[in-house]
Amino acid sequence: MHFASDNWAGAHPKIMQAMTSANDGYWPAYGNSDRDERLDARFADVFETEVAVFLVSTGTAANALALSAMARPGDVAFCHTEAHIRVDECGAPHFLAPGLQMMPVTGSFGKIDEAQLGRAVETVAGGGLNAGRVGMLSLTQATECGTLYAPDEIEALVKTIRSNRSDAPVHMDGARFANALAATGATPAEVTWKRGIDILCLGGTKNGCWCAEAILVFRPDLVDDMIYLRKRAGHLLSKMRFMTAQFEAYLDEGLWLELATKANDQAAKLEAAITTSNSVRLAWTREVNEVFGIVERNRFAQWQAQGLKAYDWQPPTAERELLDENETMFRLVTCYATSDNEVEAFERLLR
Amino acid sequence: MHFASDNWAGAHPKIMQAMTSANDGYWPAYGNSDRDERLDARFADVFETEVAVFLVSTGTAANALALSAMARPGDVAFCHTEAHIRVDECGAPHFLAPGLQMMPVTGSFGKIDEAQLGRAVETVAGGGLNAGRVGMLSLTQATECGTLYAPDEIEALVKTIRSNRSDAPVHMDGARFANALAATGATPAEVTWKRGIDILCLGGTKNGCWCAEAILVFRPDLVDDMIYLRKRAGHLLSKMRFMTAQFEAYLDEGLWLELATKANDQAAKLEAAITTSNSVRLAWTREVNEVFGIVERNRFAQWQAQGLKAYDWQPPTAERELLDENETMFRLVTCYATSDNEVEAFERLLR
Amino acid sequence: MHFASDNWAGAHPKIMQAMTSANDGYWPAYGNSDRDERLDARFADVFETEVAVFLVSTGTAANALALSAMARPGDVAFCHTEAHIRVDECGAPHFLAPGLQMMPVTGSFGKIDEAQLGRAVETVAGGGLNAGRVGMLSLTQATECGTLYAPDEIEALVKTIRSNRSDAPVHMDGARFANALAATGATPAEVTWKRGIDILCLGGTKNGCWCAEAILVFRPDLVDDMIYLRKRAGHLLSKMRFMTAQFEAYLDEGLWLELATKANDQAAKLEAAITTSNSVRLAWTREVNEVFGIVERNRFAQWQAQGLKAYDWQPPTAERELLDENETMFRLVTCYATSDNEVEAFERLLR
Amino acid sequence: MHFASDNWAGAHPKIMQAMTSANDGYWPAYGNSDRDERLDARFADVFETEVAVFLVSTGTAANALALSAMARPGDVAFCHTEAHIRVDECGAPHFLAPGLQMMPVTGSFGKIDEAQLGRAVETVAGGGLNAGRVGMLSLTQATECGTLYAPDEIEALVKTIRSNRSDAPVHMDGARFANALAATGATPAEVTWKRGIDILCLGGTKNGCWCAEAILVFRPDLVDDMIYLRKRAGHLLSKMRFMTAQFEAYLDEGLWLELATKANDQAAKLEAAITTSNSVRLAWTREVNEVFGIVERNRFAQWQAQGLKAYDWQPPTAERELLDENETMFRLVTCYATSDNEVEAFERLLR
Fold it and tell me: Which of A50, B64, B76, D124 is deepest in the core (most CB within 10 A)?
C-alpha cells in the first residue's frame, strides 16, 4: 500500500522506452538540437499559444526559477499559507530569487481566499518602502490540499492583484497540473494564460516521468532572463535530450492525461472507502489524486504497522479545528502506478 | 505634534557635541583606532560581560547582519508575525542572509506566545528536509506594539526553541532597547545574555543619535564571520570615529537611559490623555514610548488636519477584532525631543 | 566526426540498462531508499575511505555547491585563470555561494603554477579586510587543457595554500576525473583525499552517463550543510534511484575506467594524426581525451565545411603567443562513443 | 606625516557646521523631507541634467548597489584588474549583485586598455551561455593608481563595449571624482553622462565629509529598482538629513573642488620632493592626490620608524617589472587636511 507520495514509483514504461529510443547518436548539447527545439512547438500546440519552454530536473527548481524571473528588488510574492514554495522547498525561492519576500494568504482547503488576498495586497501597497512592492501571485493547481481552482476563481485572484499592479506576474505551481486537467476536462489554455497565468511550472515527475519539469513561459518579456537564470543555478542539463524525450512521450497521444486520470480514479476509490467507513472520515472532498482523512492516532499507527505507507499530515492552519485531540490527519496519494491490489488492501484495512 | 516616529528628530546636543569633539586629527580608518577599540570595553562594562561590538548605520542592517551571522543553509528563523525583520525591512534579512526562511509566530500585543512557538518549532522539526532546519529565534524588545517581555518570558521562549536545538542562536532586535530598560529598571545583562540572547542589535538612532546602531555579539563563535559580513555588505564605515563618538556620548553618564526615560514619560502623558478621553480609547496598555489608540476614522482625519503627525496603524493580526468597521488604530511615538508643548497640544485635541 | 564535446553522445548501453532495471516498484523518494544509501558504501570502497555522496544532475551544480559548502563570508577561491568554475559556468559559483570571490592564478597548459599560487595567497592574506580571506583552492583534474596534475603537484599546491590557512578546504573539479585515472593508473584515493582534496566533484555525464554527477565529501565537517545546500538550490531529485542506478553501473566492474580508456585511446589516435601532419600542429601534448591543435583559420573552416564538428578554441591566456595571426586553436574531444570511423575520417581530412 | 589614506581625517569644519545646523527640529525620515528632495535639484545644477540621487554611507555600498541596479542574470562586469570593486571590497559586488561575474581587463597605470577591453568583450560575447552575457563597464576616475582618463578615453571605452551591446550600462567609481575634476578643470557633465556614464558613485567621505556617498543615476530606467535595492541592503538611513546636510555644504560655493584642489596641491609637493631625491623615484606621474614611489625596502622601513604613516603598495600586475627585488612600492595620499608641516616633514625625510 504505497500512498506516501506520487514520486515513489519509477517512470512509466512508455517514458522509459522513449528515453531508450533517444539514446542513439550525437545530439548537440544543452538543448540545442533540432529535436529539443521542436518540443517548444509541441507545447505550443497543447497550450494553443506561443510558449518558451525551459526543462529542469526538479519541481523546486522550476518554481524557484519561475519566481526569480518575475521578481524585482523588494517584491513580495503572495501565496497560500500552505503553498509548497513557502513551506516545503527548504527556502529555495528565497535563495534562487535573492531577497524575495513571501506574504502568506489564508483560505479554506488550500485555496487562496479572494478577500484575504485583497487585504494582503493592500497591506503591502500601503506599507511604504518598508513593506516592499506588490510583486507576483503564486497559485497551485491542484493545491496542496488536492483541491482545484475553477477557471473563474483563477481569474478573480489574478484580477485582485492586478487591480493594484496592473502587470503583476502570476505563477502557477503545476506539480499536479495534469491531475487537475484530468479531473475537470478543462483545456490547458483555459486554466493558464487565458486566465492570466504568465508562467506555469508543469510537473512530469509525479505523473510518470522520472525527472522532467517544464517551466512554460507565456509572457515574452520574462524569457530572456530565464535562459541565464537556469544556467547560473546549475539547472541546464547538457544531455537535454533525455528530458526532451520524456516530455515527447508524456504529451504523445495524451499519455499525461491518461496517467493522471488513472491516478485520480484510484484516489476516488480510496475516497469512497473512507466515506463508507465508520472508523475514519474524509477531511474534505477529494478532487484529484490526493485523499485527506482524519482518524484516531492509534488506529493510524496500526495501519502503518500493517503496511500502509502514508504520511500523517500537519493540518493546514485553516483546518486545524477539524481534528480532535486524539486524532490525526493523514494523506493518501495515488499515481499512475497505483494498483488495484493496493487499493483493495486499503479497503480491507478499513473494515 | 510630531508623533509619527522616533526618527524625525535630530541628534541630542550631547551626541552632536561628541561628534564635533571627535573631529580633530587623524585616526586610523575602519574602526582600528585605539579609541574605536576602547568602545568594546565600554560595552563590556555596561553589559557586565565580554562582547564584540560592530557598529552600523541602520537598524535594518544591524538586524539582517545579525541574522546572517546566525544562519546556516536551510535555517528557519522564528519571529513574531508583526516583527520588523519580517514585514518592515523590505526583505533585507532574506537578502543579506541568502535563503533564510522566516516562520511567523503569533501572540497577543506583539509578543510571541510560548505555546505557539513550541508548535512552530515542532512543525519545522517534523517537516523533514523540505521544511528546512530549526534555526534561530528573534525577539524584539520593546516589541512592535510597544510592549515588553519580562526576563522570565525571554528565558522561557529561549528554552522552547533550545529544547529542540540546544544551541539555537537567539537574536534581539533592540531598536528601542533603551526604552525597555528605562521602563523596567532591569540591567542590560538581565534581559540579554543572562537570558540566552546571543546577539543584541542595540539602537541609538531612535533615541538621540543620528545614525548609530550596535550589533553586540555575546557568543564568541559568531564573531569571526561578522567581521566579513559587515564589510561585504558595504556596512563598514571608514571614518568610524563618528559612530564611536556617538556611542561614547550615548553611554556616558547614562545618557541613553535618561533620554529613553524622557521619551517614556512623555508617552505616559499621552496615554493618560487617551484614558481619560471619551472620544478615543487605548488599544492596549502602554509600556514604553509608543501609545496605540483606537478612534473613529473621521476624527483621526480631523486630527491630522489639525496638525497631528502620526500614522494610522495596520492592527496586528491578533488584534484585528479590537476595531469596529468605522474605526482606525493609530500610533503615537515620542522621543527624547518630544516637548511638553506637543503633548499639551495633543491633550487639547482630545478635548 | 563528432569531436565538439563529450556530452553530445547518449548514455552507454550498460548505464541505460541499469536505469531500465531500476524502474520497477516503489522506492522511498529523495535518496532515502536502502539502495540509494548503499551507494555511499560503493564509493567508500572505490575511494578507500568514508565519504558522503551527494548526487546532482549537472557538473555546474556539483562544483558550485561544493564551493558553497566550503565558503565562509569574505572568502576568496583560488583557481586557474581558465578554470571552468571561473569562466564557463555563467557565474554559478558566485550565485550559489553568494559573495564568493575568485582569484585567478596563471600557469602553463591549464595547471596552476605553485609560485603564482603562493603570490596570490600572499596578496589576499596581506590585503586586509578589503581583500577578504584566504578561502579555498580549486583544482581541475583533468584540466581545461586536458592536462594532468601529478599527485605530488596536487600535494604541493595544497601545501601552498595551507601554509597560510592550515585548514583551507580544497575542491577538485573532476568532470573528467575518470579520464585522468585511466591515463595514469593512479588509484582514486592517491589523487584525492590522500593528497588533501576535501571534495571531489566526480563527473559521470561526460563519460557515459546521461546526467549523473557525484559530490564526494571526504571532510566530515562539510557534510551537514551540504544536505541543505543541495535541497535549497533545487538540486535534490525526488526519484533519486535513476541517478543511483547510473552510478551503480558506472562503477560496476570498472566500467567508468573502461569507458575513459576508450576515449583516451581514440584521442591518442587523433593526436598521432596531428603529429604526423604537415598542415597542423599540436598545441601541447595530449594527456587524456582532449586534443588541442593549431591550424590556419581557412583550413579549419574547410574542415568544418567537410563535416568536422569541433570548436575553435580561445587560447588560454598563458598560451596566446603560440598562435600566429592567421591561425586558430581548436579542440577535439573524444568520448566512450567515438568510433574508429570518425577517427579515420579525421585522419583523411588531414591528408 | 599621515599619508596612509584620505579617510583618516575627520570632516571639514564647514561640513561639520552644516550637520550641526541641520540638527534642529523634526524632518520626515528616510529622505522624504523637502530639503532632502531639493538636493536632487542641486545635483542637477552641478551636472547640468536631471539626475536621481541616492545617498549611502560607504563607497563600497555605492559601487555595489550601482552595479546591482545594472546587472541582469548572467551579466559580466568589465573592469580594470586593479579596480576597487574587484579586489578591495571584500566581494561586496558579488554579494549585493548576486551572481555577478567580473572580467578583469589590464592596462597601464590603472587604466583599462581599449584593445584589451575589446578582446575581453569578444571573449564573453563569443563564449556562449557558459560565459554569461556582456554586462556593464566599470571605470574608476581617478583610478586606483591616481591616474586619469581623458574624456575621449572614457568615450572610446564606452564605445568599445557598446559596439557589442548597444545599451550596455556604464558605471563610474568616483571615490576621488572631485580630485579628478580639480586636476583637469573639466565640468562634471563632460566626464560623465556626456561621455556615456549611466551611474556615477560620487565620493564625499575621502574629501572632507564624514560619511557621504552619492549614487547619481543618469539613466531613468535604472532608478525604480535602486529605491528598493538600497533599502533591502540596509542602506537607507532614517535620519537622512545629516547626509543631505553634508552634501549641501560639500557642493556649496564649490567647497568640494576647493578641498580636492588643496589635496592635489599637497600631493604635487610630495611628488616634487620625490622627483628631486636621489634615494627614491616616482613609479609614475602623479595626477591627483596620490603619489606612488619606489624605494629600497630598508629605507621605507626606516621612514616608517621615523613616523611616516603610509602603506607599501602591491604593485599593479602591469607594473610589477618596475621594481627590483629589494625595492618596494609605496603610496602617499593627501587630503584636504594635509598640512604644510606634514609635507615638509616628508621632504626632510628624503634629504
Answer: B64
